[in-house]
């Protein structure tokens, strides 16, 4: 196949595909930009290993993403908030052949080139791609071990896009507002939908509630993807009804508190709560506004043709209302982790991906997520895996062991908090600096508490639930 | 995967999925009907060979089609207008294990069971299906040789459905009017879209222009699929503007004459001309009403993400405006012909399906079909392959050779006409009866002309174009 942007430019050359600030690009113009970049990148490409991007939400980033599709190398989307060490890990693990970065970032590798350094190049050899080829790679952490590179194929993105269209409808004049990061699947998937559907994306460099509010009121977009924190901030500034062109707010990245759902209902905000992950190429289930008040706390039903089942510890299917592990299956689900067959094998059971999240289905098939996988902390829409933070803390010579949990926070939903058993005395600030050097800012604990021991079950396994109860009861 | 209807019934149980006459069924009710039928059919199933259906456009037929998806056997859709001999050929060639037929049909095989004979059965073993499994088989004839069974996978149908939605938009309240036969891809694909999108189908037993007109005026449907003859008949009775709910008329099965396109434009009928075939799981290119007057005679651009190329006799790509063979590629294209690897191999070139049709692309990528494959005759939306009719005629002892072409016809667009070189004298009526016993009525020539020889080129190949010119110049 030709690249998706190339096809879209053939089908809808004069349609606006991208809005950013006061500028706009038709699909033809986008394709020209991407072609130019592809020609510049091409001389630096040695093989089919990923090319990493270290970018922000800029039009240039959109063109870069499409340029990499043109030369058919998978893109590794680096979270720009991570630390050097975290980036290094991903580059090494993915065997990335090149990093292309925006000028404001510094990355320590000899395989990096800044966007401005890219010089007019030569024609690249045209390599058609197949649906099952890897399009993008994004790293996620898990219960244990190192972060893993989730492979997202073209078919994954296409299926996710079609399932979403069948769910919320597709209007040829839709404009999808993107204030979520392009390096997350939430943002990246909007770019894919834009070329697959032939609709415009309105790109925001960052989330500013006042300007987004103004755009919603003035009919600048019909769909927006947000995380809970963003919706909270939007509600804070809301003083006018949104334009009738606006028809759909996709809410992801953690559960929405009841008061928020009710407020949206009262204010006629069409919120679609959703559940998904990097491994499902964006939302996997969605709850329509019509069901939101009837099914409080639910995450909805799978997008067509995805499937969900709940299993107990023996892998047997659970009855309705019985809590177990959430497994997902369908064409939007990843085929596995990059260069990591053992993690892939461990993650799947007979074609079903074991999410590690816990929940149940009701008799109508609505999913209720009881607990995110591995005590996942969701802070401002970003995933923080306790095991990863604990592992860094334990690496400090003064620390014997650590337990990290989410502490409720008005602004971020949750922030990480650390319980620490010491070997020898150490300042909290010293620990804080130690972690800050190794992990992205949003992963660094906002609270440290020294304790004599950590709660463990009979098998000796850390019971984070107890720490969580302790910290959150205090804070209430 | 579960069957599509089963999933849809889980996602949208209370949505109406089927309207027929004064009755209507929700997806939940449809699923119950299909489950009951699956239980009745199940005891008759021995293996994974196709089950043939000999049916008309009845609600029962819809449930049967979904029942077969439930037990995961491919369905062979028999054209109910064919002759016994033609049916026998398809049953044998496909190794069909069973024929389920409506009472009004008689089919000579011991593997047949009428719908009414199906008795309450047992639970069938749940067999999940995969995207690449064959969902349906439909026979088409070609330039030479016997009819071939086109395999349509679930993925083919899904891709066709999504490509169409991205093109014409998808509204959750759409109702698709189906007056084309369910045994053709045009009708079958509407059923697939219904469960994939979650929208209603309004099913008509046959095409009656007055009742369809009334339904279009009264807002009973938002989309309709028609062939040229149907549109002509609709225009004949049109005396009122269609309802604003009606938004899309997909026109297939042969080119639309200019006067018809202009009339539709004047009457505000949103006609989407299309080009497709059994091998592409319904329309492959579509021309929007916006482009219809600007691009007279065009068949539009491919549905996303399908691709088209034009090649010359050496298989090299043609420049814009240069006529050559039309090749198609994409996830909606068949993987080949059932039990016929040699025909499959012959039909494909490096992953591209050679349609046998002839045409060109303009500089914007619009397809213009110059000539249908193998002098295909399209009569009232049905395909008639000259080679098939000639082969039957040549089988008569009095006939030395025959040439069959399309003669212009006011009602049907074209009808078959036969030029015959005799060995010995014979009555036209005798020949007519001979052919009628062996071929469907619409394939039987409406005119016979005895000639001394047939026009052939230097290589001795029949030049049907000359016969066609001769007959049509006379009739003008």
UniProtKB/TrEMBL annotation, chains A, B:
Q: InterPro entries of this UniProt entry?
A: AMP-bd_C, AMP-bd_C_sf, AMP-binding_CS, AMP-dep_synth/lig_dom, ANL_N_sf, MenE
Pfam families named in the record = AMP-binding (PF00501), AMP-binding_C (PF13193)
Entry function:
Converts 2-succinylbenzoate (OSB) to 2-succinylbenzoyl-CoA (OSB-CoA).
Q: Identify the keywords attached in UniProt to this record, alphabetized.
A: ATP-binding, Ligase, Menaquinone biosynthesis, Nucleotide-binding
Pathway noted in the entry: Quinol/quinone metabolism; 1,4-dihydroxy-2-naphthoate biosynthesis; 1,4-dihydroxy-2-naphthoate from chorismate: step 5/7; Quinol/quinone metabolism; menaquinone biosynthesis
The highest taxon in the source lineage is Bacteria
* Reactions catalysed, as given in the entry: 2-succinylbenzoate + ATP + CoA = 2-succinylbenzoyl-CoA + AMP + diphosphate
Name the gene that codes for it: menE
> Recorded E.C. number(s)?
6.2.1.26
Name the UniProt record assigns to this protein: 2-succinylbenzoate--CoA ligase
Record GO terms (molecular function):
o-succinylbenzoate-CoA ligase activity
Stretches assigned to the AMP-dependent synthetase/ligase domain: 6-338
- Matching PANTHER family: ACYL-COA SYNTHETASE, MEDIUM-CHAIN ACYL-COA LIGASE ACSF2, MITOCHONDRIAL
Q: What is the lineage of its organism?
A: Bacteria, Bacillati, Bacillota, Bacilli, Bacillales
Residue span, AMP-binding enzyme C-terminal domain: 388-461
Q: Which organism is it from?
A: Jeotgalibacillus haloalkalitolerans
Family, according to the entry, reads as follows: Belongs to the ATP-dependent AMP-binding enzyme family. MenE subfamily.
Keyword ATP-binding present in the record's keywords: the answer is yes
């Amino acid at each position: 196949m030709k690249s998706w942007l190339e096809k879209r430019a053939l089908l809808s050359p004069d349609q606006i595909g991208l809005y950013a600030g006061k500028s706009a690009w038709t699909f033809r113009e986008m394709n020209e930009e991407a072609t130019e970049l592809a020609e510049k990148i091409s001389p630096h490409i040695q093989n089919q290993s990923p090319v990493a991007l270290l970018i922000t939400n800029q039009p240039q980033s959109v063109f870069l993403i499409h340029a990499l599709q043109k030369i058919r190398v998978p893109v590794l989307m680096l979270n720009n908030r991570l630390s050097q060490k975290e980036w290094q890990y991903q580059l090494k693990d993915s065997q990335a052949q090149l990093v292309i970065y925006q000028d404001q970032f510094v990355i320590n590798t000899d395989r990096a080139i800044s966007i401005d350094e890219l010089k007019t190049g030569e024609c690249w050899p045209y390599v058609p791609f197949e649906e099952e080829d890897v399009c993008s790679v994004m790293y996620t952490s898990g219960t244990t071990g190192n972060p893993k590179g989730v492979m997202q194929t073209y078919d994954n993105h296409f299926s996710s896009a079609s399932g979403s269209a069948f769910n919320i409808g597709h209007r040829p004049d839709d404009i999808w507002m993107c204030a979520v990061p392009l390096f997350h699947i939430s943002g990246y998937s909007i770019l894919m939908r834009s070329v697959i559907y032939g609709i415009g994306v309105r790109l925001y460099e960052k989330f500013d509630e006042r300007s987004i509010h103004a755009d919603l009121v003035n009919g600048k977009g019909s769909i927006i993807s947000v995380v809970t924190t963003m919706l909270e901030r939007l509600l804070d500034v809301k003083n006018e009804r949104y334009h009738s062109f606006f028809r759909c707010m996709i809410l992801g990245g953690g559960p929405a508190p009841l008061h928020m759902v009710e407020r949206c209902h009262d204010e006629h905000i069409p919120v679609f709560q959703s559940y998904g992950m990097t491994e499902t190429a964006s939302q996997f289930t969605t709850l329509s506004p019509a069901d939101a008040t009837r099914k409080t706390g639910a995450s909805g039903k799978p997008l067509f043709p995805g499937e969900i089942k709940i299993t107990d510890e023996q892998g047997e299917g659970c009855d309705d209302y019985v809590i177990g592990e959430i497994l997902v299956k369908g064409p939007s689900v990843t085929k596995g982790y990059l260069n990591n067959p053992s993690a892939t094998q461990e993650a799947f059971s007979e074609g079903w991906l074991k999410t590690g999240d816990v929940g149940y289905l009701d008799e109508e098939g609505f999913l209720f997520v009881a607990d995110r996988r591995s005590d996942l902390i969701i802070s401002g829409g970003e995933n923080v895996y306790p095991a990863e933070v604990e592992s860094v803390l334990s690496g400090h010579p003064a620390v014997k062991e650590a337990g990290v949990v989410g502490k409720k926070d008005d602004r971020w939903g949750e922030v990480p908090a650390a319980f620490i058993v010491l070997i020898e005395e150490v300042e909290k600030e010293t620990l804080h600096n130690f972690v800050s050097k190794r992990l992205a800012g949003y992963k660094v604990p906002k609270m440290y508490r020294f304790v004599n021991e950590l709660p463990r079950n009979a098998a000796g396994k850390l019971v984070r639930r107890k720490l969580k109860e302790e910290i959150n009861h205090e804070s209430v």
